[in-house]
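Hey, I'm writing a tutorial for new members on how sequence and structure tokens pair up, and I'd like a real worked example in the thread rather than a made-up one. If someone can provide the structure for the chain below, I'll link this post from the tutorial.
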Amino acid sequence: VGKKEFEIAPISLFVPLKTVEERASTPDDRHPDQAIDAEDIAEIAAEIHWEADLRGHHIQGLDHMTELVGNIRAGRIDPEGRPEVVRDGPAWAQLSGHNGLGHPAGLLAAATAAEKAGGAGIAVIGVKDSADIFLVGYYAEMIARAGFAAVITTNVPPHVHPFGGAGAVLGTNPIAFAFPTAGENPLVFDMATSVVAASHIRQAAYDGIPIPAGIGVGPDGKPSTDARTVEKGSIGSMAGHRGSGLALYLGLLSGPLVGAATGKALDSWLGRDVAHKGLGHFMLAVDPGIFGDA
């Protein structure tokens, strides 16, 4: 990074492009419900971040590898954790990520959603004890490519202040929608519920690049265009009170509803000395055929 205050302990991560490309397949081919080893887990994570970079969405790309290693070293992620369906019914399932990387939990949840929607016409999946799944639209696209409409949301640590407030109590809590189409590719929409995603602030802070006015505040609650100051403070909600309400709803949907935490209960992910809680995810898959031909 070139600036002393952002130096980190040296970490070597090498993911051959060939390895990532060999794992590439159509998204609905993947169903990680069998035993997977540490190398599989690393390749799954690398592939998803690499896909983000290939799509030009670098805030969800391989830039996150250092963060993942840091969370493993800090004990927030268990590299031995594997996702598992712990409870289910014909049209629903609850998964535990067992505190492992979020990527395989996201893949298993999406595959389970598509499988159950294929039988019941609709499926709702909740994931607890997980970590960040990052590119939320990736999993929605998986479900849509299998022929189902998808809605996915996830909760993340608090980086966002609610409308009229200044303290970080909400996550950027993204949501993604995806719909199958008559063409080759589905329609996919993926967004954060904050003015900008937190990773935009993180990347601007690397080199001290100013951010536009109106995006965030410092820890004193005063507006700032300094990314490092906003990192210590909070980001605003998108669309004022509308964004705050949506972020709150999505945080509850992918938090307490599925057996996970939300809001300030996730402060340990920010390095704060509080009891550690895993992240949660919520997925919905709907077979368009249950409503007849369009």
